[in-house]
Amino acid sequence: MISLILSTAALFVGPILCWVSRDHSIARRVINGVVILTIAAIIGFDVIPMALKHGGFAAVVVIILGVAFPLVLERLFRSATDTAHLIVVAIAAFGIILHAVIDGIAILPESGSGLAHAVVLHRIPVGMALWWAVRPNFGTTVTITLFVCIVAATAAGYFIGEPMIAMAETRTIALLQAFVSGSLIHVIAFGVKHEHH
Q1: Sign of dihedral through CA atoms 36, 38, 39, 44?
Q2: Which of 77, 123, 131, 169 is 20 to 30 Å from 84 at the Cα level?
């Protein structure tokens, strides 16, 4: 339960850091760098080796799918903010909510403490990125609504995922870890881009 609370707090830390560091791009880069280095260490030394050990070659494929998932979401989201077409916005929002459900399952104790720590930490740059991308295009009300939906989806994944994880085989948990690791690799590779025009 503590991971769920921390992941929620971390998500809202993002916009706070954006506001505090709005005139200090160096401070924002330092914060982003520390978070990304910490995630990289946890994923590289703890989560991926464990996922590969129990998941085998399938874990490699799932890691690649995990890396691709945020890229697809990002493209959809960019299209949504550029065009504001309702269908694209709905698809992008659905993808973000689905990702939050997976995060909720990933922070369960059964998924491993290393993965839970990495997911909680990655919520900080995610919160920053969403605040910078959504608020200027859709307003504060829509942005806060999206944050609330992410929190609710994460909680749903956490509570619904608990019985599923309890019944899952070690290999299934390893593949979940591999998928989440892939999406975290995306955060490590690309960081937080604050593109606002």
Answers
A1: positive
A2: 123
Q: Residue 196: inside a domain, yes or no?
A: no
Q: Is residue 99 part of a domain?
A: yes
Q: How many domains does the chain have?
A: 1
What are 111's two structure tokens? 């998924």
Q: Tokens for 90? A: 């709905």
Distance CA 136, CA 15 (A): 13
- What residues make up the domain containing 43? 2-190
On whether residue 66 sits in a domain, the answer given is yes
71-126 pLDDT, tens digit each: 887 777 677 666 555 666 677 778 788 888 888 998 988 877 888 898 898 888 88
What's the CA gap between 174 and 180, in Å, rounded? Answer: 10
**Angle ∠(75,10,29) on CA atoms, nearest 5:** 65
